[in-house]
């Protein structure tokens, strides 16, 4: 069990690191694009396309990380009014819905990736599937996180993501 946990943590670390590298790269490409355009009246022909690729990849990966950290939208003030057993059932229902969304991303993301493989992006000449392969990857990660949540395994890796509510506004979180 310890080896499985270590492997899962390694995969999760690689996934999160790739998302951060994507965000950092996107910032560098956009900054370079703006500076070269304003200072030299020149734009690299590939910069907008690479920015789009990085934005899509970072957004989808960030979505999976958000599910891992429990940052998705919720209506805690309404849910907190329910009895504890009902809250457990609602949380399980939410996790099953998230799991279904992950499966949807895997199935239809893969179909779309295969469909778009024969066409190429105009500037970089990369296959169009490069833009869409992140969908099934994100789906796998979302499914993994959902299954861990259903098994009542805490997947949060970062502290301080919770919004502190004042007394009388929903209690302590």
Shape: elongated
Element order: H for helix, E for strand: HHHHHH
The overall pLDDT, averaged over residues, is 87
Question: How many structurally independent domains?
Answer: 1
Give the CA-CA distance, first to last residue.
30 Å
Number of continuous helical runs: 6
Structural class: mainly alpha
User: Helical percent range?
Assistant: 55-70%
Radius of gyration, in angstroms, nearest whole number: 20 Å
Low-confidence stretches: 164-173
Strand content: under 5%
The main pleated sheet reads as:
none
SS elements, strand count: 0
Description:
Helices cover about 70% and strands about 0% of the residues. It has one domain (about 1-150). The relative contact order is 0.12. The two termini are about 30 Å apart. With about 170 residues, the protein is mostly helical. The chain contains 6 helices and no strands. Helix 1 runs antiparallel to helix 2 and helix 4 (about 85-115) runs antiparallel to helix 6 (about 135-150). This is C4 decarboxylate transport protein. Its main location: membrane. It is a multi-pass membrane protein.
